[in-house]
UniProtKB/TrEMBL annotation:
Protein's UniProt name: Radical SAM protein
Lineage: superkingdom: Bacteria
Pfam families, A to Z: Radical_SAM
Key word Iron present: yes
Family matches, as PROSITE patterns: RADICAL_SAM
Named cofactor requirement(s): [4Fe-4S] cluster
SUPFAM superfamilies, per the entry: Radical SAM enzymes
Radical SAM core domain boundaries: 113-341
UniProt keyword list: Iron, Iron-sulfur, Metal-binding, S-adenosyl-L-methionine
Record has S-adenosyl-L-methionine as a keyword: yes
InterPro entries the record matches: Aldolase_TIM (IPR013785), Radical_SAM_PqqE_MftC-like (IPR050377), rSAM (IPR007197), rSAM_sf (IPR058240)
Length: 460
């Protein structure tokens, strides 16, 4: 049975359980997991759907209520519902691709898989703006785009991923309509797909966006400043009035169609020159979908460019932490009053405390890095990384015709080193919470130029 788009529109993407084991016995394949109800009064799950590529391959209405191991892990949950279900054994090699949905009278949600990873795929390396804080402006644009063959190669990765974003160094909406349509067509409706855009071309792609929502659930519009003086400096080549009009147009067209998706989220990279504007961005978010994304400027080591109005080092809020934190906390209070959800993306979160002047945020052990097992970051020029903070690529997925790190010797070595709490040279000086700018002791490949802080560098 093929499942409709409407089914997925009602899925709550919050994790509420796991698909956590499978057994193959006498050629009978059994999979199992559990869902947890955190709220008293919810009706218990009544049906489980197992899906493969938008097709229902099995359903069950039986639950072995209250699995003891789940009770230990989630003592706060009033009820947990374990399940086991037999499926066709031809799926034994495709377990990573299965998706499990749980339905009750009140809700429908998807169970997490231990390997449901994030996949970041750069659709285009071309951009129509030249924002001074962008690593591609500093290092040079590679200007490569994904071909249909590339997308065919990446398709299994899309199917296994839970979260997918089309971000990279380029502007997604510069991609030709038919190519973008092809990229959307590779992604099952159940996925959480999003991308960032500078918003300048939104008006030209409204139908395409709305036709493909789902799988597209979020569009994040990078604006950075709502001031007529600062915007042209931070978003060089863009026009604030055009972006704001486009965002409004998209929202109106979505409403006219009666669609819930994509949710529209303004975004700002927090800098010394704009952090006083967080409150204005909260006001803007309250006119859209009540969500605001903040990102701290990557802590790249970069010589300031005398020819630019933008002084990279001076823009890092770590040099003005006390006032920044005060402003941020007041703004977050204001957001609560307005009912706007503010979230941080990137290496630093609002909860993290500055532990030194050198790095804002919490420091963790390298072996805690989960990107090695669930991060996949593919640039359109062929660079494969586990995350955006890696300072050099791990391998070339285009040349090797492979997007699976377990099939690449260097990627396996990187995973092994991280597991052993060692910093591989690909992560040397990364601005992530695990490396926080430290150097690797591994001898580095002379052909690679490192960019301190993050984003994979250009090969020499
Ligand atoms: S750079 Fe940091 S987050 Fe990325 S793979 Fe290395 S340790 Fe993990």
């Amino acid at each position: 049975m093929e499942i409709t788009k409407e089914f997925f529109e009602n899925v709550n993407l919050a994790y509420a359980g796991f698909f956590d084991h499978h057994e193959l016995d006498d050629d009978v394949l059994t999979i199992g997991g559990w869902s947890v109800l955190f709220t008293e009064g919810n009706s218990i799950p009544k049906k489980i759907y197992i899906l493969f590529n938008n097709e229902v391959i099995a359903t069950s209405e039986e639950f072995n209520v209250n699995r003891d191991d789940v009770k230990v892990a989630h003592p706060e949950a009033p009820l947990n519902c374990g399940f086991t279900i037999e499926i066709d054994n031809s799926f034994k090699d495709k377990l990573d691709y299965l998706e499990i949905f749980v339905e009750s009278d009140d809700f429908l949600y998807q169970l997490n898989k231990f390997n449901g990873f994030l996949s970041q795929v750069e659709i285009s390396g071309k951009c129509n703006l030249r924002c001074p804080q962008c690593p591609a402006v500093m290092n040079g644009f590679h200007n490569k785009i994904l071909s249909k063959n590339d997308l065919d190669l990446i398709e299994p990765l899309f199917q296994q991923a839970r979260n997918i974003c089309f971000d990279g160094f380029g502007e997604v909406l510069l991609t030709k309509e038919e190519d973008l349509e092809y990229a959307f067509s590779k992604i099952p409706y159940s996925k959480d797909l999003k991308f960032h855009t500078n918003g300048m071309l939104l008006n030209k792609r409204i139908d395409l966006i709305l036709d493909n929502s789902l799988p597209l659930r979020q569009i994040i519009v990078s604006i950075d400043s709502l001031s007529d003086d600062l915007y042209p400096v931070l978003r060089k080549g863009g026009k604030l009035s055009v972006v704001l009009d486009n965002v409004k147009l998209l929202k109106e067209a979505r409403q006219e169609r009666g669609q819930r998706f994509p949710i529209i989220i303004p975004n700002m990279i927090i800098l010394n020159s704009n952090y006083k504007e967080i409150r204005d961005f909260i006001d803007l978010a309250s006119t859209l979908d009540n969500k605001l994304e903040l990102i701290h400027l990557y802590d790249l080591e970069k010589m300031d460019d005398d020819n630019s109005d933008f002084m990279y080092e001076n823009e890092k809020v770590k040099h003005n932490l006390k006032d920044y934190k005060k402003t941020l906390n007041e703004s977050l209070e204001y957001a609560k009053e307005k009912g706007v959800e503010v979230y941080f993306s990137g290496s630093v979160t609002s909860e993290d405390e500055a532990e030194s002047e050198e790095y804002i945020g919490e420091k963790r052990e390298v072996k805690e890095c989960h990107y090695k097992s669930n991060g996949r970051c593919l640039q359109a020029d062929g660079k494969f990384m586990f995350c955006v903070w890696q300072t050099s690529p791990v391998f070339d997925w285009k040349k090797t015709n492979n997007v699976d790190p377990s099939k690449n010797p260097r990627a396996r070595k990187v995973m092994e080193m991280l597991e052993n709490n060692e910093i591989p040279f690909e992560c040397s000086t990364a601005g992530c919470p695990y490396v926080y700018g430290r150097e690797s002791s591994e001898v580095k490949d002379e052909q690679v130029i490192f960019v301190k802080g993050g984003w994979s560098a250009t090969k020499a």
